[in-house]
Design a protein that fits this description.
The complex is a heterodimer. Chain A is an alpha/beta fold. Chain A folds into two domains: 269 residues, no CATH class; 62 residues, no CATH class. Helices cover 23% and strands 38% of the residues of chain A. The N and C termini of chain A lie far apart (49 Å). Chain B has a ten-stranded mixed β-sheet with strand order 4-3-7-9-12-14-17-20-22-24, with helices on one face. In chain B, strands 13-15-18-21-19-16 form a six-stranded parallel barrel. In chain B, a hairpin with a 2-residue loop joins strand 3 and strand 4. Classes of the chains: A alpha/beta, B alpha/beta. Chains A and B meet through strand 21 and strand 22 of A and strand 22, strand 23 and strand 24 of B.
Amino acid sequence: MPVTTSESAITGVEGYVAEFERFQQTLNEPAGLTALRRRAIARFAELGFPTLRQEEWRLTNVAPVAQGAFHWPENDPDAVAPGLLAPHTFDAAARLVFVDGRFSPRHSFVGELPPGTVVASLAEVLAREPERLEPWLARFAKFDRHPFVALNTAFLRDGAFVHVPRGAVTGPIHLLFLSSGEEGRPTLSFPRNLFVAGEGSQTAIVETYAGEGAYFTAPVTELVAGPSAVIDHYKVQRESLGAFHLATFQVQGERAAVPSSHSISIGGALVRNDVNAVLDGEGIDCILNGLYFGDGRQVVDNHMRVEHAKPHCASHELYKGVLDGKSRAVFNGLIHVHKGAQKTDAKQSNRNLLLSRDAIANSNPQLEIFADDVKCTHGSTVGQLDEDAVFYLRSRGIGAEAARSLLTYAFASDIVERIKIEPVRRDLEEFLFTRLPMGEVVRQAV
Amino acid sequence: MQTTETSTIEQFAAQDYKFGFVTDVEQETFPPGLNEEVIARLSAKKGEPEWMLEWRLKAYRHWLTMEEPTWANVHYAPIDYQAISYYAAPKPKGSGPKSLEEVDPEILKTYEKLGIPLHERAILAGVAVDAVFDSVSVATTFKEKLAEAGIIFCSFSEAIRNHPELVQEYMGSVVPYSDNYFATLNSAVFSDGSFVYVPKGVRCPMELSTYFRINARNSGQFERTLIIADEGAYVSYLEGCTAPMRDENQLHAAVVELVARKDATIKYSTVQNWYPGDENGKGGIYNFVTKRGKCDGANAKISWTQVETGSAITWKYPSVILKGDHSVGEFYSVALTKGYQQADTGTKMIHIGKDTKSTIVSKGISAGHGQNTYRGSVRILKGADNARNFSQCDSMLIGDQCGAHTFPYIDVQNPTARMEHEATTSKIGEDQIFYCNQRGISTEDAVSMIVNGFCKEVFRELPMEFAVEAQKLLAVNLEGSVG
């Protein structure tokens, strides 16, 4: 594993560019990949950190990240206390643990998987057989428009590589990303994941992000759903409240694939999820759902982009948010139907529940349609709990607070119930019971 | 009556753009170009007081520091602002028309051709008209009758001369001179427009209307409309526009400001049919307009209704600032793009007061190579308790070369607010057409019928005569869109 480099903190665009010069000297890899990194860092130098004057970042201020000073982590990934892992693990077919973006073999295991299936650290595959990644790596997540994807591509080193071969069916694969902001030394990490589902394969992948202290992480995940592959992707983001989490998830669908994604966002001080799906084959059925919670001064921004490039595809998006305190949520969803993508059936909906006077919701669903025989709808709502429903519950002897919690639970469980992996679902229900006031009443009621 | 109406429809259908003729009148135009001197000359020409010139120059100087916006979903070659003539007017005979008899008969004929009743016989039509020909207002009808009720309805230049205190108080109060690139340009060079003041408690007895006509070549039209409805007043105002067919693009950058005081209601309807360019997308009007209304007191109401069928490019967002408690904003729009037309239109509803309510209904129809964009913003500010918004944006696509886009921006900062947004996109179903065909209705009629049904919610909001006109306009514009 290449040792990193700089002792001092990295800050500002110049800081990252200068760090890249040091960083790339430590690498021993195919020339093609180094050239890719160079292009990415050059693009980052051009783009710089996004500002509020850019449409895509109009409502999300990343100044804390742009002005923050971050360090490469120094601790040993294997030395992480098992107690930190325990709350997030469940019975999976394979689990890879990454600490501050670096693979921890000690805490990881790969159980019995169908022959040909690979679940491994990206760094190991890169060192051993980089040609294996060649057809996919960095081919889908575009860094020319997104500065954090550019940064990730320039500094990519480790993450998970999952390849499910043709026709294979696997149990759930769990990827756990832990970050530990060291005292007075905020860390940074750029996890990079690549999931490839072969023709007709079936698999489920859960990404969990969690941590302690203050840190900055910008993960990028690329998912390639081969022809007729069924792949369920879950992302549970439970970062610490001091974390900056700026992630991109890129889905590439081929003919008749059935990719689905559920993104649950709970933690983080500043969270941005870019979810992009390109439906590049006929007959794809793509589901993108999400649930986000905001409290205190949290900022959570979900940016979706679904490209219907070929005819006869369906996409369904449902994002729900529960906002309390002075939190702010941004939802930006674009459905782009290309010329000739006839018979597209695209649905998008965003619902926000405001629990406090100071919470803010911004919702920008967008449609761009260049084909005429399509069905596209979007809907967006922002509001508070229905007072009539609260009254109804109260008239049946349920206290005001419990009634509100019950209704909030019902609102959120709409997404939670769609999670097919039971332990993950139960874990989230448990989170709701503890998060909501009078959660015990809710637990008994449901 | 029935037969003439049918023949009118046939006439409509026979030609693509009926209002493409040019009126041959002696024109007085400024040479193209824009600088402080041109503005001073324009102001002197109109005999404006010092404060007006100051305002124009302030706007012009600010305009020089601004950059032309590029965020809209429309594409056009850069505009050369120095190649535009900023003043074009029919040459006055003598000291300017005092009554209709003195207006150049050529111009009267123009309006006659357009079907605008300027003559007193128009009493039957029951509409008061202010006719704006290029840069100046040529005639305003029913002035005396309106004056009896205390209503001021005149051209903007006249208002500057006769009611400077009102103009100074309200001009720029809704759309400040520094608002945006085109509004600022307008503030510097605006030529004429309409001015309406309805005093306290008066319900305007007839529909007011302005008819805009661009006639001169190479000129831009920069009109400014200001409508004030004082406490408890009511006014309904219509606007219509046409222009001759020309190969080059002409810029139309207007500003409309509405002020509705406590308990007042303003209803503003537009049927915009500027020349859209030929079938290859050559020529046509750039319709870059800033329209905004302010509900400045409790229970005020502003309602925008627009039917946008013309212009090469339409780029406008009639907006409402809901400042007074319980105030109401409405926006009803039909935008049709065909040929190579582009439209980026929608509305902004800014909820400031408590219990404010807004409704947005937008229907976009794209045919041919048309690109239709709905862009809207609903902002519910912190103090807007119990604000309510409902938005619905439906798009219809006819043919596979066109596009429909929806960009609503929703910003809610108050938890008691309720807002809903819905959008759908569809095409005319083959089964729907088949059903009509089966019952002996031709495909063309079926499409026109379905489209009219699609737009019904908006047409319902138009004053009667306009609703009929709008339906016909749509039918004509859709002519030949169905393969």
